[in-house]
Design goal:
SusD-like_N; two-stranded antiparallel sheet; mainly alpha; two-stranded antiparallel ribbon; 553 residues; signal; RagB/SusD family nutrient uptake outer membrane protein; cell outer membrane
Length: 553
């Protein structure tokens, strides 16, 4: 068991972010109030604190550039939604660049995390560690996080500058081969050095050897599929083969201590509302508390009750993905709270599930489904909703429950307010974990790679209440869609399988309601972009022309 001082709060982590604000030394005299790169990174405690600042860059300030949300909206499983004041999401949905700096925070936060972790790695050898296991864990986390940020950039933008030192620089875009060579090398370093301790809630929210093995498989499948490759040439000149990736993912399955929890629905917060939600009560659901740990989760973003709409970046303490994907303006639909209505679900997703698949109702709110008990109170066209389908993301939606006020009166509040006394504000009281890697994903990637394919594939199906099937690629594609809906993976799966244009354009002509008027849905997937986003224009200008805009933009 690795013991690390975990008293650092998210607020403390933000204080550390000043280390990455600039590469210059402002004063030659001793700084008595702030830490400095000259005197910091000297022991395991300081490295741990600095890594917390790296994790802090994972979420975005608002929901508009949340990576999971962006990937969901661009996939075939979600439409744009929002209202007349939300052209950003409607342009995102239709592969349009409607503002100059679209996706600036997605790009900028990734490089913020990279700069911070580069600073840690550059100073790591100057630190003193009393425990070799702690040293290896922290070094592995640093390399994992750098690989994770670059994988995010590579999947969204295709090519991006590869920066490995904490120095201001204007690098041209690295090729996909170069990016994935570094991504795989960093994940390999993390796998090689991090201790093989079985899952423990002590490491909840932090990278481990097992999450590195799982993310390595994700990176390998995306790169080899998208670019028609059979292996990855690492930055050190060695070659990563499929057989090595298969060995690692098999190790993760057999030795990590991670497993599927018994009921898929207990992963998601609606299962907490088992006194206010007939569906949860009738199915004996019981939420597996994020704070206590969940053996199915290998990597996630943790949020806190410190979220505030104060203009100082603290919105990102709360899970803004939940606010943005909630049913637009729908107040009083216990146990579901309201939000901005981005990313309404495609009816095709609802209709694609097999009969008896509990993940259908476990993943999607169908407002006309009697099981939900909201059809009589649901208001179509609320706040002039766009692309309304009657289907909504159930995994990431606010959950409200009946609770008592200080005087003993029954009132309706967010579940996390009920649990932790978080601020009484629907814009910030959503603090559920954002799942970045679950064990079911590991099992399905293993099946796709050919690792005990029948066993691993049907293990996921059995948990969903389904019978066995042949683990063919087509069946794996369907299983991934149904198991991992709304988790930000579908768009990248479509890209690597070469299915994006066909699957996304299939939605053209679907009847949706915009401002409560039946309207044919229109989307125009643009193959000339190769599925990648535009680089923010301000970044191109600041580079003095070194950066070149992505094709098609």
């Amino acid at each position: 068991m690795i013991k690390i001082n975990k008293k650092l709060t998210v607020v403390g982590a933000l204080c550390l972010s000043m280390l990455s604000g600039c590469g210059e030394k402002f004063l030659t005299q001793e700084n008595l109030t702030e830490v400095s790169t000259d005197t910091y990174y000297k022991n395991s405690g300081e490295i741990f604190e600095a890594l917390t600042g790296v994790y802090n860059a994972l979420p975005t300030e608002g929901g508009r550039d949340n990576p999971t949300l962006v990937a969901n909206v661009m996939s075939d499983d979600c439409f744009g939604g929002g209202g007349p004041d939300d052209p950003d999401v409607q342009a995102m949905d239709n592969f349009q660049n409607n503002v100059e700096n679209k996706y600036a925070e997605l790009w900028g936060n990734s490089y913020k995390g990279i700069f911070r972790v580069n600073t840690i790695i550059a100073n790591f050898d100057n630190s003193v560690f009393e425990d070799e296991e702690v040293k290896n864990q922290l070094l592995g986390e640093a390399h994992f996080l750098r690989a994770f940020y670059y994988l995010r950039l590579a999947q969204f933008f295709g090519e991006a500058p590869l920066i490995l030192k904490p120095e201001p620089t204007d690098n041209p875009k690295a090729s996909a081969d170069e990016l994935f060579g570094q991504i795989a090398l960093d994940f390999k370093m993390a796998i090689d050095v991090m201790p093989a301790n079985k899952y423990s809630s002590d490491m909840n929210g932090r990278a481990t050897k097992w999450s590195a093995e799982g993310m390595m498989a994700r990176a390998f499948l995306f790169y080899t599929g998208k670019y028609n490759k059979s292996s990855i040439v690492l930055s050190d000149g060695s070659t990563l083969t499929k057989d090595q990736v298969k060995t690692w993912i098999d190790d993760c399955i057999k030795n990590s201590g991670h497993d599927l929890i018994d009921d898929f629905r207990n992963i998601w917060p609606y299962s907490y509302a088992n006194e206010d939600y007939a569906y949860a009560k009738d199915n004996n659901l019981s939420w597996v508390d994020d704070a206590s740990g969940n053996e199915e989760v290998l990597f996630s973003i943790k949020y806190s009750i410190l979220g505030a709409n104060d203009g100082n970046g603290s919105l990102s303490y709360s899970n803004q993905l939940v606010l943005y994907t909630a049913m637009r303006g729908q107040d009083g639909l216990l146990p579901f709270g309201m939000g901005w209505g981005w990313g309404p679900a495609n009816a095709d997703l609802w209709n694609s599930y097999e009969d008896g698949d509990l993940r259908k109702e476990g993943s999607i709110i169908s407002v006309e489904n009697p099981t939900e008990g909201i059809s009589e109170d649901y208001v179509w066209g609320q706040w002039d909703c766009f692309h309304e389908t009657g289907y909504w993301n159930k995994k990431y939606t606010p959950i409200v429950v009946n609770t008592l006020d200080p005087d003993g009166n029954t009132i309706v509040k967010g579940m996390f307010y009920d649990l932790y006394g978080s601020p009484d504000d629907f814009q910030t009281w959503n603090i559920q974990d954002e799942m970045l890697l679950r064990f079911s994903d590991v099992l399905l990637m293993a099946a796709e790679l050919g690792v005990n394919a029948n066993e691993n594939f049907n293990r996921v199906r059995a948990r969903a209440g389904l019978g066995t099937k042949d683990p063919s690629l087509e069946n794996i594609k369907a299983e991934r869609r149904h198991e991992l809906a709304f988790e930000g993976l579908r768009y990248f799966d479509l890209q690597r399988w070469g299915d994006a244009e066909t699957a996304i354009n299939k939605s053209n002509g679907t009847i949706v309601k915009t401002r409560n008027i039946d309207t044919p849905y229109e989307v125009n997937y643009r193959p000339e972009t190769n599925g990648f986003l535009p680089i923010p224009e301000s970044e191109i200008r600041l580079s003095g022309g070194v950066l070149i805009q992505n094709p098609g933009w």
